[in-house]
Amino acid sequence: QVQLVESGGGLVQAGGSLRLSCAASGRTSSIFSINAMGWFRQVPGKEREFVAAIRRSGGEMVYADSVKGRFTISRDNVKSTVYLQMNSLKPEDTAVYYCAADTRLGYSASNREDDYAYWGQGTQATVSS
User: Fold this and answer.
1) Average model confidence (pLDDT) for the chain?
2) CA angle at residue 125 from 83 to 81, to 5 degrees?
């Protein structure tokens, strides 16, 4: 089992920045089973959508087109933590942001929700116009 806890959400004006963090915990064997970690977001009444993902080994990254050039995903394997640096924020970035862990060893970083076995509780990010 892997537990994921997000933090760093809040309220920011358009054009501003936020940095989200997601810390993974659990047995050492469980932590090492994580192949990749991703960020998704959801607004009320809409489906959850992919934002970014990064592989634990090698650092392969993938981004949604809507955030390319503005958001940066990174990882600290020693701390078992993944970050999402969000710059040039827009009101349409307002959402609950979820961290997720993919334990399918050997696969590329995925943008598919179904590929992620573990999920955090989410953190709200609100961008005012």
Assistant:
1) 95
2) 15
Where do we find the tokens 């989200």? 20
pLDDT at 28: 84
Which structure tokens are listed for 4? 């994921």
101 neighbors 109 (Cβ within 8 angstroms): no
Torsion of CA 97, 101, 107, 112, to 10 degrees: -40
**Tokens at 55, concatenated:** 């592989």
Q: What type of residue is 104?
A: R
8: alpha, beta or left? (left if phi > 0; alpha if psi -120 to 50): left
Q: Which residues of the chain have pLDDT under 70?
A: none
Give which of 45, 61, 56, 54 is closest to 96, Cα–Cα. 45
Predicted confidence (pLDDT) per residue in 85-111, tens digit: 999 999 999 999 999 999 998 899 999
Structure-token match 């590329």, residue found: 108
By C-alpha distance, which of 30, 22, 44 is closest to 119?
A: 22
